[in-house]
Structures are given as C-alpha cells and as structure tokens.
Amino acid sequence: FRWNTSFCVWNIDEENRHGSSYLENAEFLCECTLKDYALYDIGPYPWIIIDDCSKVLGELYKISDDMLPEIDGYEGEGTLYSRTKVQVYDQNNNLYNPFVYVYPEFRKILA
Fold first, then answer.
1. Is the dihedral of CA 7, 71, 78, 76 positive or negative?
2. Which residue from 63, 58, 106, 60 is spatially nearest to 82, judged by alpha carbons?
3. Which pairing describes strands 3-8 and 46-64: parallel, antiparallel, or unpaired?
4. 111, HSE (Cβ side, Cα atoms, 13 Å)
5. Which of 24, 28, 49, 87 is least buried, going by the fewest C-beta atoms within 10 A?
6. What DSSP designation does 67 have?
7. Three-state secondary structure readout of 76-96
C-alpha cells in the first residue's frame, strides 16, 4: 500500500473544504500555494495554466496510489488535463512535490 500526494485546487472556504467525494478516503494535509500558475474560471471547470506572474491557492491531500486512476478519470487526465508534478509551499514555506492537473493546450488557444 503506497501513498502519493495530490494537490487539489478549490476556492477555499469552510463550506466547501474537503468537499469532493473522490477524496473521502484522502487525508487533508494543509493549505498550499502553487507559484507560477494561474487559475481561470471558464464555467463548469477551472483551468490551471503556467503563468510566471501568478499563484494558485489550494489544498494538499495525501492519497493512496490506488486512488489515482479514479481521480485521473474524474479530471480527464490525458484528454482534458495533464497530471503534472509541481512544487507547492505551505504557510511555513515547507516544500511539497505533489501532482496537479494542468490544462496543457491553453497556449495553443491564445496563439
């Protein structure tokens, strides 16, 4: 039984914290900041894209490797998003290297 770390992005507020059903068995670790990325609200789901001048606030969860296929399916990994290893920092500036789902085609759309 191996554990991974997954970074899940939310509008952090008390009502919606830990709100996703696929994270019911995940362990909440802390709130974190993802630097050099931006979050865009495009309607039914957000885009996280590379942006050297921005940052995204989110939550860090510890998950089992067995959960990744379910989360990948929910996030559209490989079709809509790309699961990417990133660096995030907690409030004490501790570094973590979790996964985040990034929208990879954004720069093509703007070109």
1. negative
2. 106
3. antiparallel
4. 4
5. 24
6. G
7. CECCCEEEEECCEECCCCCEE
CA distances from 51 to 22, 62, 72, 89, 95 (A): 28, 26, 23, 17, 19
Specify burial of residue 77 (Cβ count, 10 A radius: 0-12, 13-18, 19+).
middle
Helix, strand, coil share (%) of the chain residues, nearest 5: 15, 50, 35
The token pair at 52 is 């050297």
- Residue of 30, 39, 1 whose CA lies nearest to 98: 30
> Distances in Å between the alpha carbon of 95 and those of 22, 23, 60, 86?
25, 22, 11, 10
pLDDT digits (tens, 9 = 90+) for 36-86: 988 887 777 778 888 889 999 988 888 888 888 888 888 888 888 888 889
pTM for the predicted model, two decimal places:
0.78
